[in-house]
Write a structure and sequence with these properties.
By secondary structure, the chain is α+β, with helices and mostly antiparallel strands. Helix content is 17%, strand content 26%. The chain is built from three helices and twelve strands; from the N terminus they run αββββββαββαββββ. Strands 3, 4, 5, 6, 7 and 8 form a six-stranded antiparallel sheet that branches. The protein has a two-stranded antiparallel sheet with strand order 1-2.
Length: 291
């Protein structure tokens, strides 16, 4: 009985030793398939030029290297990031501006677009919720063409630009922040044609930013709001049409003698502008009455 217990302990020890050897061999095989990639050592803000202190090389499974990852640290030095990189995030080619691009907001503006700054306050800037990365509509309040200055009866508010991307607020372009920031200037991403419209709009009236859903891509076309539309509760009543003339009256009378009822057909109205006349026949008598 005692020898049987010793035998079971021996078998358990051999099995444990085998498991350790197999685990060590598996770890060695995994380590042999490791690669090294460049990752952010600290948070790198949008538009920043990468310096050696911002990145480091770390071990990464060879078969799971992200597309566009850098295996040499020197290749990322001096490159400009087009989006904020978090600590430990791999530096990818798709997140960098072309080689030779200088740092700053200009590296973030896509080809064919422009960055334009407009002055705002706590109301115009949607109480500070117009943050980098959000989309806004631009609305102008001005006078209709041909109206005199300070003629509020001819004031109109109209959305002139739809779904405009906010690039920066004041001098900050961090798109990861969600805390409201009340600033005095907002930089918008526009096309050259939109830049012309925006410049004209701020010269002829006052601007307002309208915050919109980031996933909504529809362009809304409106006719603008005027004082007449405001006071009518959003409905413009058509002009009162000329009142139709009152209908002509037809009278049916019964004659005293003979006792036969006679239906009376209305005669044409007399040429009087404000009266309606009918001809009444009672027996052999005929009379005309006007109302």
């Amino acid at each position: 009985m005692r020898s049987r217990g010793m035998l079971m302990l021996l078998i358990a020890a051999i099995a444990g030793l085998g498991a350790v050897l197999l685990a060590a061999r598996w770890m060695q095989s995994q380590n042999s398939g490791q690669g090294r990639v460049a990752v952010a050592y600290t948070e790198i803000p949008l538009g920043s030029s990468i310096t050696p202190e911002m990145v480091q090389m770390v071990e990464w499974p060879q078969g799971n290297l992200p597309p566009g990852a850098f295996t040499e640290l020197e290749k990322v030095h001096g490159r400009v990031v087009t989006g904020t990189l978090q600590r430990g995030e791999p530096v990818l080619e798709a997140r960098l501006a072309p080689v030779g691009t200088k740092g700053g907001l200009s590296a973030v503006v896509p080809a064919g677009k422009r960055a334009m700054t407009v002055r705002v306050n706590d109301v115009v800037g949607v109480a500070g919720f117009a943050l980098p990365g959000t989309f806004v509509d631009v609305m102008v309040n001005t006078q209709t063409e041909g109206s005199k200055n300070n003629d509020r009866d001819n004031t109109i508010s109209k959305i002139v630009l739809d779904r405009i991307l906010v690039l920066a607020v004041a001098q900050e372009a961090d798109r990861d922040s969600t805390k409201p920031k009340v600033v005095n200037a907002v930089t918008l991403e526009v096309t050259p044609q939109q830049a012309e419209l925006l410049d004209l709009a701020r010269s002829v009236g006052s601007l307002s930013l309208v915050l919109r859903n980031q996933s909504e891509g529809e362009v809304t076309v409106t006719g603008g709001a005027t004082k007449q539309l405001l006071l009518s509760g959003g409905k413009v009543e058509p002009e009162a049409a000329s009142a139709p003339p009152p209908p002509r009256r037809v009278v049916v009378a019964r004659a005293a003698s003979p006792p036969t009822a006679v239906a009376v057909v209305a005669a044409p109205a007399a040429p009087v502008a404000s009266k309606n006349c009918v001809e009444i026949i009672r027996g052999l008598n005929k009379a005309t009455e006007c109302f």
